[in-house]
Amino acid sequence: MGFTNHISGRTWVGILVTTSAIALFLTRPHFEWIANATDAIGLTILGLAMLPWLGTILESLSIAGFGEAKFRQIEQRIENAEEAIDNSREINASANVINDTSDDNSLPADRLKSLSVDYVSTRKSMPSSNERTEKMATLFAQMRMEVRKIGKSNFDPSEGLNSDDPGENLAAIAYGYTFVDDFNMDEMIGLINSSKQPFVQFWGLRAIQNSVSSAGLAAFSAKNIEDLRSLEKLIKPRTDRAYTIGRIVKGINRALEAK
């Protein structure tokens, strides 16, 4: 999911490289050409095992001046790629909505309520899978379409952001995602922190990311920034949610440094 607990493709590649290298290192006595060679080969294999995680290690160590400019360039390219992947998911979900030819003459508010119920039902009835994520993403795209029809004056996002119902949470996030200047940042961050559903967390973070793109630092109070930094530490690493909040926090930090 864009936002689910599933492991991303980049992480799978890292795991594959690391496990393969470790396996080769442990079984090297069975390969004469390795066993008879110097320890340098063994160290090289272990170095290969560490390669996928080198970026995280370097960032944790914060080695000032040690290839920092080049490292930041690579980091930015990775962020851009992740952003492109997230955007492609949204485009695909929106395309599914456009291709939906079903007739529904009900009011937008009623359709939004129905979509909220459909989200809860879909999440409960389907096993965790790409198919379920795609279906829920389509529901979220439909929610965004309905909140645009409802408009700012006829919808109270605070009610949904503080609700115990995840479908209502998602409807409120769809509003905040659409109208980036008309939701309470404290409530949005609070919902992401309290929600047990990765899908809700992911799209809440994407709504915040939209707000950052629109308003920059002006969208955040000092408390909001500290809360986001704390939240980043709590979100499961190497998930789409972690990458998204990482981009948000890094963007905030860079903006603060530039002031």
Keywords:
mainly alpha; 259 residues
Describe the structure.
The protein has 13 helices and no strands. The chain has helices at 9-26, 32-35, 39-50, 54-61, 68-98, 108-125, 130-150, 157-161, 166-178, 185-194, 198-215, 222-234, 240-258. The chain is globular, with a radius of gyration of 22 Å.
Whole-number count of domains: 1
Number of strands: 0
Poorly predicted regions: 1-7, 28-43, 91-96
Number of helices: 13
Choose one word for the global shape.
Answer: globular
Instruction: Report the major sheet.
Output: none
**H/E element string?**
HHHHHHHHHHHHH
Proportion in β-strands: under 5%
Oligomer: single chain
Cα distance spanning the termini:
35 Å
Q: What is the CA-based Rg, rounded?
A: 22 Å
Structural class: mainly alpha
Estimate percent helicity: over 70%
* Average predicted confidence as pLDDT: 76
Summarize the structure.
It contains 13 helices and no strands.
SSE topology sketch:
Elements lengths: L8 H18 L5 H4 L3 H12 L3 H8 L6 H31 L9 H18 L4 H21 L6 H5 L4 H13 L6 H10 L3 H18 L6 H13 L5 H19 L1
